[in-house]
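Q: Could you fold this chain for me?
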Amino acid sequence: MEITLLYASLLSILAVFLAYQTGTLRLKTNTLLGAGDSSEMLQSIRAFGNLSEYAPLAIIMLGLLEFQDVASWKLHLLGSIFFLCRILHAYGMAISRESTPYRLAGIVGTWLIILSMGISGVYLSLPL
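A: Sure. Below is the predicted structure, expressed as structure tokens.
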């Protein structure tokens, strides 16, 4: 399960980075709970939260596909695109409260990767 370990590790590092940014911003804005009145705080919270919502499903699906002996290059393609999409989304959230091309590309890419892993899982689970 080396491939899943790689992407789970990269996503964990990204999660700690986003959590650190949120914590630092909490100190800067003296917002100990919630977002307060700070739109920047809300953006930071949601960037971390959005990663936390999607990453577990993607990691589970990637691991299950790896367990089914899906080709390594396909797993790396899925994992790397998912990771890139999560970075794009977090960056898009950080730079603006409004929708940005980075944020849009990040979430649409995330959905497409998870959908493709789900469809692959359904296909692989069917008796042929």
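A (continued): The mean pLDDT is 92.
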